[in-house]
Design goal:
The protein is of the alpha+beta class and 739 residues long. Helix content is 58%, strand content 9%. Among the domains are: 192 residues, no CATH class; 263 residues, no CATH class.
Length: 739
């Protein structure tokens, strides 16, 4: 009997369960699809598969968190369902059913509805997981081999466990409600509506204007100060925290204060206010926003995070992919660092005998070291070139601030002093950073192994290399166009070209993104006597041997760090000596070996993880916001049944009532979305400027994905909410005669 009664109730109240079903279905679909990452490894390359296995573990923990969030959202959703059915539940008890029997019926209804939603969500998740394989391949710059239909047992278990958690939480809430509420409260539930407080127009106007002003200040501060790139507590984090607090306060003040003066303005526009049901609609919207101003303000902030997360994350991932080609043009590179300002001598590093690393201006032979240490790979090595990077400031000079105006040495801030441009946000603290120089012959050696033509250079000129993002390139170009002069090796130099060189020859070693902040190419004789910064061996494999060389170098290079203990190297038998020597003294310390394969793998890992997390977190936040708004609107629509009944009784046309419901729902969903969108535009502008320091970022390229998520999720909730609210306001639903 209980099952038959529960099934009948679910069938007759199916539309009331709409938001509940949509939220669980979306949750289960996401749980399943994003936890099929482990099974996607069968169709992708080995390197991508390793990353996906790591990502799958992380996704599992994030899924548990999502289940907790949606579980409590389901509790909120049930608040609407119980509110709608208080009279029905009370009637069961009046007819003689005990609270325990009523609880059984409610539990069965919840179970039937939940299982139905789970089945729908699982089906959607299976379809979504097939599409997700192609998204994964695109994010990781991989290709799919032998694609086939997948069904993930891990995804099934994750979704089942998370669904079970949501079901149990909802069930306990239902039982608690039925057990605590008195019959008289249940029977009068539909008559109890939320009290509406009238706020003074003057006070609300002041608060609304204050909210707009505060938001304007927050926007200005963010555009001026930028994001905390270096996480400097005093210089960046404190101002950013203040800006964030202003944004939150301004948003809440706007939502709290704006509805009342907006309603007053509409009331004075007689041609609009007194036409159709605008009077009723305006008062309804103002009442709804007034009664849930804090919740709607918080929703706008979360929507802002969702839009920024998806758009920003995917833009960063796309930008990293674009910078990979010019950032890693060699098969492999070996980097040694010399003693100097900030070099190994200041780090306490010593050799086997405890002797400190000596500073030098004479480069050691990295190629010979590499040939001895990596003898087994020499058959796969083709062209190679050593580039020695020198400090631009002589060792005996200790400038107090390193400014261009005082000494004429190459610094990052010097370009701005000549052109009048300010350093881009994110590097303003590096205004006194010294730039390095390399000799022309070695730069031409780099161009040769890259298949590029050599360049000629007048001894009184220099070329400028940098492979970072467009922001810094524009900054450098302005200084070069202004004819910025630098002193190198005792000679004042002018730019040979009025633009920065940012092709693949600007990459001194392999990296997954731009790594050369700025380097001057000068005549060979000008570097004599300058302190060495690093020596880099650039290696190209013979055609077809790239993978073999990469694998062999990875295995051998592991020995370089075996003996590193307590800031000292203790060398043992069979280990590679990590030092370079000049005249028997250790002068250079092994820094790293990087390969193109490493750079590709690192870039794929970063872009894949960023892309997945951005989409996943954004989807979660949108579902949460949309569900909260939907439940709020349906609860308030249920409270307004008496008003809709009165409209029908006084002869209001059904079409006008429907339009009023649509307007109320659209404004309630649209206002938080509009405010969140404005916040997101400002934040993405700043984010794009910061990321443009490292890589080209095109925010517009990711807008399509963001729009798709919002149309699918946010738009779906809006449509479902409108249809359910329209049904509540329908004359037939209210028991009135029509026609």
């Amino acid at each position: 009997m209980y099952c038959r009664l529960a099934w009948g109730n679910v069938r007759t109240s199916f539309r009331d369960y709409g938001i509940y079903l949509i939220t669980i279905a979306f949750g289960v679909a996401v749980f399943y699809a994003f936890n099929t990452i482990g099974e996607q490894t069968a169709f992708l390359s080995q390197s991508t598969s390793e990353v996906l296995k790591l990502l799958a573990t992380f996704m599992g923990g994030l899924t548990v968190f999502l289940a907790c969030v949606l579980g409590f959202l389901m509790v909120y959703a049930n608040n609407f369902l119980v509110r709608r059915r208080k009279r029905e539940i009370g009637l069961y008890q009046v007819l003689g059913m005990t609270k325990r029997q009523v609880s059984v019926v409610i539990c069965l209804e919840c179970g039937i509805a939940s299982l139905l939603a789970y089945a729908i969500g699982l089906g959607l998740g299976v379809l979504l997981s097939q599409f997700l394989i192609f998204v994964t391949a695109a994010l990781f710059n991989d290709t799919i081999s032998q694609f086939g239909f997948i069904f993930s047992e891990a995804g099934l278990w994750y979704s089942a466990i998370c669904f079970g958690f949501m079901f149990v939480v909802t069930l306990l809430f239902d039982i608690a409600i039925v057990g605590k509420v008195k019959i008289v409260d249940l029977m009068q539930g539909e008559r109890r509506v939320e009290s509406q407080r009238v706020r003074p127009v003057w006070l609300c106007s002041i608060i609304a204007v204050a909210g707009i002003v505060i938001l304007g200040i927050a926007y200005w501060r963010l555009l001026t100060d930028g994001l905390p790139v270096f996480l400097d507590a005093e210089g960046e984090m404190v101002p950013f925290a203040v800006t964030t607090a202003l944004c939150v306060v301004g948003t809440l003040a706007l939502f709290w204060g704006l509805p009342t003066p907006a309603m007053a303005i509409c009331r004075h526009v007689k041609g609009y206010y007194l036409r159709d049901l605008h009077l009723f609609t305006v008062r309804q919207v103002a009442s709804r926003v007034n009664s849930s101003a804090i919740a709607m303000g918080a929703t706008a902030l979360v929507l802002f995070l969702a839009m920024t997360s998806v758009t920003g994350g995917m833009s960063i991932a796309s930008g990293l992919n674009l910078s990979l080609e010019n950032g890693s043009p060699y098969t492999a590179t070996v980097v040694f660092s010399y003693a100097g300002r900030g070099g190994p001598a200041t780090m306490g590093l010593s050799d086997l005998d405890g002797a400190e690393i000596e500073s030098t201006s004479h480069p050691a032979d990295v190629a010979s070291w590499f040939e001895e240490a990596f003898a087994s790979v020499q058959g796969d090595v083709g062209a190679q070139n050593q580039v020695d990077v020198y400090e631009s400031v002589p060792e005996d000079v200790e400038p107090d601030d390193g400014t261009y105006a005082t000494y004429g040495y190459p610094t990052l801030g010097a370009f701005g002093e000549v052109s009048g441009m300010e350093l881009p946000q994110g590097v303003t603290e590096q205004v006194h950073a010294e730039l390095q120089v390399i000799p022309l012959s070695e730069y031409n050696g780099t161009r040769a192994i890259l298949g590029m033509e050599p360049v000629e250079l007048d001894p009184n000129t220099y070329l400028f290399l940098s492979n970072l993002g467009p922001k810094l390139s524009a900054y450098f170009d302005a200084g070069l166009a202004a004819g910025i002069r630098f002193t190198v090796g005792g000679r004042e130099l002018v730019p040979a070209e009025a633009r920065v060189i940012k092709d693949k020859s600007a990459a001194l070693y392999d990296a997954s993104y731009g790594s050369n902040t700025g380097t001057l190419v000068v005549a060979d004789e000008l570097v004599e006597g300058l302190p060495l910064h690093a020596s880099i061996l650039q290696i190209q494999a013979v055609p077809g041997a790239e993978d073999a060389l990469d694998e062999e170098m990875r295995e051998i290079s592991n020995d370089l760090f075996v003996g590193y203990v307590d800031d000292q190297y203790t060398l043992g038998d069979g280990r590679v000596n990590p030092f370079l020597y000049v005249d028997g003294e250790p002068v250079a310390f092994y820094s790293m070996i990087s390969t193109r394969a490493d750079a590709v793998e690192t870039s794929a890992t970063m872009t894949g993880i960023i892309g997945y997390l951005a989409t996943y977190i954004g989807f979660v936040l949108v579902v949460g916001c949309a569900a909260i708004l939907a439940i709020q609107q349906l609860s308030q629509a249920a409270d307004s049944l008496g008003r809709y009944r009165l409209l029908h009784e006084i002869g209001a046309p059904a079409q006008q009532v429907d339009r009023s419901v649509l307007s109320q729902t659209a404004l309630s969903f649209g206002f938080p979305l509009l405010v969140g969108f404005c916040h997101s535009i400002v934040a993405l502008t700043v984010l794009a400027e910061v990321m443009a320091l490292l890589t080209p970022v095109d925010v517009t390229s990711s807008i399509g994905l963001t729009a798709a998520i919002f149309v699918l999720v946010y738009g779906g909730y809006f449509l479902a909410t409108y249809l359910m609210a329209r049904r509540l306001a329908d004359a037939r639903y209210l028991g009135l005669r029509t026609g």
